Amino acid sequence: MFSFLLGRTLNVISLAGLAFAVGMVVDNAIVVLENIFTHMQEGKTPMKAAIDGTQEVGGAMLASTLTTVAVFAPIVLVTGEAGQLFFDIGIALSASVLFSLFTALTLVPMLAGLFLRRAEAQQMLAEANYNRGNWLERNVNQTSAIFRTGQSKLENFLLKTVNWSLGKGKLKRRLVILSIPILLLLISFQLLPPADYLPEGNRNLVLWLAEPFPGTSIPEAISQSEAPRKFVSEQPEVMRTLYVHRPGRR
Questions:
Q1: Quick one: how far is CA 51 from the chain centroid?
Q2: pLDDT digits (tens, 9 = 90+) for 175-188
Q3: Which end of the chain is more exposed for a tag (fewer CB within 10 A), N or C?
């Protein structure tokens, strides 16, 4: 819609912007839905959980979305070749995340309040092996249980790391923990590829410049170029040729 209002077309660049935004547009909805489900597991009704869960994370989602817009929206103001190249990407990304925020704050809570059930949410939390519902719900719950197990192990590992490094007489341990991200940062700088404006691709083009002798007429220059042009055209790798004659020096 924004592209239509601004007189832009649906092209490769705008489609690339939409592809980049695919992962961003679902983030807000996932955060809202997960928080609503958590409130339902605490015993709230679906409607109450939808209201409280959305209000609880609404400010954080607004700040996150505006941060993304603040990064990509100024691309619209860029002039020159770079502005023409990235204008559609800026529009697509900014509009996508704004509409995703609107949907996450309005449509997702309404649908959650209508279709989610408090009893099933509490059963999923209480029972390790949830055998109710259809096959999709059971598979989702089993996958969620695997992630919860991994999350619990990660949390225990982080707590052990904190206990290992904090306290009196543990300065060397804190320095060891601090050196890990610094070391990773230095390694990442060493592995950075060289910077460039655009990647160099295979243009599949050969440019041949020839300068005739001074005083050569245009018909004579064209006649002299017939032999090399015929030779180039006969090559199987050549699809087409173009000859341009310009009088004067280059």
A1: 30
A2: 888 899 999 999 99
A3: C
